[in-house]
Amino acid sequence: MLSFDPRHLAVPTGHFIDGALVSGPPGNLPVRRPCDGAVYTKMPLASADVVDRAVSSAKRAFRTSDWAKRPPRERARVMRRWADLVDANRQELARLEAVGSTRPIAQANGWDVPYLAETIRFFAEFADKHGGEVAATQSDRFGMIVTEPRGVVAAIAPWNFPLVMAGWKLAPALAAGNAVVLKPSEMTPVSVLRLAELAIESGVPSGIFNIVQGTGAGAGEALCRHPDVAKISFTGSTRTGAAIMATAALNGVKPVTLELGGKSPQIVFEDADVDLAAACIARSILGNAGQVCVAGSRLLVHRDLRDALIERIAVLAREVTPGPTWETGTSFSPIISSGQLDRVDSIVRRTVAQGAEALIGGHAMEGFGDGTFYAPTILIGVDQGMEAARAEIFGPVLTVQTFEDEDEALALADHPEFGLASGVYTRDLSRALRMVRSLEVGTVWINRYGRSDDFIMPTGGYKSSGIGKDLGREAYEANLRSKSVLIDV
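Above: the chain's sequence. Below: its structure in token form.
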């Protein structure tokens, strides 16, 4: 039985530095459950001194432990043990994830935690299968390109998939031999603490994986400014990503990997499988209540299929089961906070005032006390100038626009700011490949929508949706630097 009583769940608190939980000034940061608004724990806020302590621990461990220098196969073996411990402690991790995040327990247990374990295993295999190369030089010279870990990597993770997103950053950095200081979101700071304890139990040296708690403006900025941080990896808003780029440039000129905002279109042509398209589109905007960077929030459908497709999506939207994330029957997530709920509702209301119509939804859900649930919403009569068609809403809100031909579909799909992902639904292979070439986005899904367990596929955006890639070989290589060696023979 996966359901649990959140009042009886032991919740770790504090920072994690040099291999152990570290307390701070008590009661600084109340952390609320989005399902009912209750404060379930309090976290310390990391000062600049605490951040410095964590970075110093990481730097010391990087230099004095054998993590970067031990045989790569052994580093991979430790990481596989870590993944095995994640699997062995799946229910505990899932409960810590579900208690205060937007992730229902059944989904956290069935997908998030197993996916995290597989992420660690995938990147562990790079440790002894990727290295430098011999360069083509004159016959009396020997040229090598040697790769080395960067040192201390700062990882700033979002709140929407706390464990999964932390894994995307931790696994490639650690597999490459780096040390990491992670700052989770202040709204979901709990589950990664247990993950860090399991890393130490698996054999990761103390200080190689550290965690600092706090806000982006506090701990996050201090981490990005720290002179001993060699690389920054961030997932979050475009505005914050731009600020991190500026901070990195002004404080040591360090590389950044940024997965940022999205406003992803889903393009449904007249020859598409309507039932397949409806199921994919509904999952993409209802999953995690639309709080996903790649949420397919803009439906662009051929005029001939509009009514039939919308009807099917609406049926699926009405079937969701909202409720506490700690109950097994819950399938529909809350919005992370009251502030975010108000933002979603405000964008919808302003768009309706601009002339759109809420076919379903368009309001917060009642009957949940202080819980922050928003009704699945389909907005029709939308044009490109309306706010809901432009802004990343990060809620279960789908806008609908129609087109007549490929050129019009591409014109509607092109967003002036975002280029994270897109879905295309058609039985015409040539058309699908034309769309792949023409869409200015980092990922295109054909007759499907959403990521799979193919960890080799990198994810990242064009335009202001980001720089660099998570997952894939690219994510591992971004955590290495190269050195050229030339020898006269």
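The chain has two domains: 6-260+467-486, 265-457.
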